[in-house]
Amino acid sequence: YLELGRAVPGSIVEVENGYALCHSDVDLSFCNFAINFNVDEPAVAKVLTEITTRARDKPSFRVFALPGDHPRDFAARLRDHGFRHQHSLIQLASTHQTEGPRSSIQLVNHSDERLHVAGFMVRQFFWRQADSLRQKIIQATANSGHELYGVWKGSQLAAAVMLTKSEGITGLYNLCVDTELRRQGIGGSLVKAVQELALSRGDAVSLQCDSSLEGWYRSLGFGKNGVLEAFMTPNRLDFDIIK
Question: Rounded to an integer, what distance in angstroms lies between the CA atom of residue 139 and that of residue 134?
Answer without folding.
Answer: 9
